[in-house]
Automatic annotation (TrEMBL), chain A:
GO terms for cellular component: EKC/KEOPS complex. Gene3D superfamilies: Alpha-D-phosphohexomutase, C-terminal domain. GO terms for biological process: tRNA threonylcarbamoyladenosine metabolic process. It comes from the Eukaryota. The lineage of its organism: Eukaryota, Fungi, Dikarya, Ascomycota, Pezizomycotina. This is Transcription factor Pcc1. Belongs to the CTAG/PCC1 family.
TrEMBL record, chain B:
Belongs to the KAE1 / TsaD family. It comes from the Eukaryota. Its EC number is 2.3.1.234. It is found in: Cytoplasm; Nucleus. The keyword Transport does not apply. This is N(6)-L-threonylcarbamoyladenine synthase. Residues 63-343 form the Gcp-like domain. The keyword Cytoplasm applies. Keywords: Acyltransferase, Cytoplasm, Metal-binding, Nucleus, Transferase, tRNA processing. GO terms for biological process: tRNA threonylcarbamoyladenosine modification.
Length: 105, 378
């Protein structure tokens, strides 16, 4: 079992979302996949941002054996975060409801 | 299709009256709807399918695809392919929804390709599918890519119980259905036939647009003056393509260096493409025929991207006709990777009660066709 000493490189990301619902959706969608390497671990949680009662911030704690592995893992993760956010922005229920019905092509 | 049944007898029960009234209004004949997302290789596909609740008849509501094409002489790498899928997912999803003219509330489930395929691309699509499922409050269904091809082929062609030849860039399998499994009777031992063709295209720097195999096919049609001798590697029920690829790449190198072929023939790209196709397709016909003899079938269903190839269909058709049977194939909308096949196969599973819990909605690069319990068939 890896101890904290064997994964000395750490990075915590706080990703704010407009509300707790979206933070929860992001967390649940992103935490499913395991890290490919046993030298990288990540832990998810939702936390509240200062001055807010909602848990609308997704906090991800990364630990890795080397800085390079940390960088690779976090960069890849951020690509996935960007995708989740774009899907929320463009395809959430209220977004689609508000769009004018298009004619069949 | 609307469900309108005439009142044939008196109904005393109020609920029955209401049910009949709903039938008249078209509400009773409901349908199941699924959205399917595919991204195991370089094609991102999203499709929406409807199944009639009574008959199960499938209707394609939309089938949108965007292909990641790499420059000539190159193949598509996992990281770039995943990037492509992430970049195009929202666009393709929008198009699929508007072409189908439906809203998320009408959808019953979100289906996605669990595997097999390339890890990064598969996962990028799965993440988007999970997000949709959570935003829209729908359940997920993970689908085996090969089973998607088979079920779509069956639905489109109406083939009853054929031997299936599944041939694509990533897979080459001869499959027959028995007792709720799609059983693999024969397969490529090393690389898929489509992979052999795609990599040969790189050796000749043939364009990958719309697909390298398509461009090989067009060149092959202009060839045929010379049939170059290439190693023919059928091993029982299976076959092998890496040896023939090595030899073909060698000949391509010789041709570019201005050398003649082993028998003194002048080598041209058209004749090399022709010779490669004739040889690998003959191998596929042989292992398919072997399986047909084994199971006593004379019907062949060809699915997968290589199934678009007209020469393969022709050669398979000749063999099947000799056995008193026929070949079924679909057009490029369905034989090339697409989202509608994932929606269709996923909805079939959903209708038997299958669900993929969110925590289990992962992807896997290796996912054997016979791992799937085909509960929706007898």
């Amino acid at each position: 079992m890896a101890t904290n000493n064997s994964l000395p490189c750490a990075l915590t990301l706080d990703i704010p979302f407009p509300n707790a619902r979206l933070a929860s959706v992001a967390l649940r969608a992103l935490q499913v996949d395991k890290e490919l390497s046993s030298s990288v671990t990540r832990h998810f949680a939702t936390v509240s941002s200062p001055g807010s009662e909602q848990d609308s911030v997704v906090r991800v704690e990364y630990k890795a054996a080397t800085n390079r592995m940390l960088r690779v893992a976090v960069n890849s993760f951020l690509d996935s975060v960007a995708l989740v956010i774009e899907v929320m922005q463009e395809l959430d229920v209220d977004v689609l409801d508000s769009q004018t019905p298009s004619t069949k092509g | 299709m609307e469900d309108r049944r005439p009142i044939a007898c008196l109904w005393s029960d109020t609920q029955a009256l209401v049910a009949v009234a709903r039938c008249w209004s078209g509400e009773g004949g409901t349908r199941y709807l699924a959205l399917g997302c595919e991204g195991s290789a370089n094609k991102l596909g999203i499709g929406i399918i409807a199944h009639d609740a009574l008959t199960g008849t499938p209707t394609v509501l939309s089938n949108i695809r965007h292909t990641f094409v790499s420059p000539p002489g190159t193949g598509f790498l996992p990281k770039d392919t995943a990037h492509h899928h992430r970049s195009f997912f929202v666009r393709v999803a929008h198009e699929a929804l508007s072409a189908a003219d439906i809203t998320p509330s009408e959808i019953d489930c979100i289906c996605y390709t669990r595997g097999p395929g390339m890890g990064g691309p598969l996962t990028s699509v799965a993440i988007a599918a999970r997000t949709l499922a959570l935003l829209w409050g729908k359940e997920l269904v993970g689908v085996n890519h090969c089973v998607g091809h088979i079920e779509m082929g069956r639905a489109i062609t109406g083939a009853q119980d054929p031997v299936v030849l599944y041939v694509s860039g990533g897979n080459t399998q001869v499959i027959a259905y028995a007792e709720q499994r799609y059983r693999i009777f024969g397969e490529a031992l090393d690389i898929a036939v489509g992979n052999c063709l795609d990599r040969f295209a790189r050796a000749l720097e043939i364009s990958n647009d719309p697909a390298p195999g398509y461009n090989i096919e067009q060149l092959a049609k202009k060839g045929g003056g010379v049939l170059v001798d290439l190693p023919y590697a059928v091993k029982g029920m299976d076959c092998s393509f890496s040896g023939i690829l090595t030899r073909a790449e060698e000949l391509a190198g010789q041709m570019r260096a201005g050398e003649k072929g082993p028998d003194g023939e002048v080598l041209t790209p058209e004749d090399l493409c022709f010779s490669l196709q004739e040889t690998v397709f003959a191998m596929l016909v042989e292992i398919t025929e072997r399986a047909m003899a084994h199971v006593g079938s004379n019907q062949v269903l060809i699915v997968g991207g290589v199934g678009c190839n007209e020469r393969l269909q022709e050669m398979m058709g000749a063999m099947a006709a000799e056995r008193g049977g026929s070949v079924y194939a679909t057009d490029e909308r369905f034989c090339i990777d697409n989202g509608i096949m994932i929606a269709h196969a996923g909805l079939l599973a959903y209708e038997t009660g299958l669900r993929t819990p969110l925590e289990e909605s992962t992807c896997t690069q290796r996912f054997r066709t016979d791992e799937v319990f085909v509960k929706w068939r007898k």
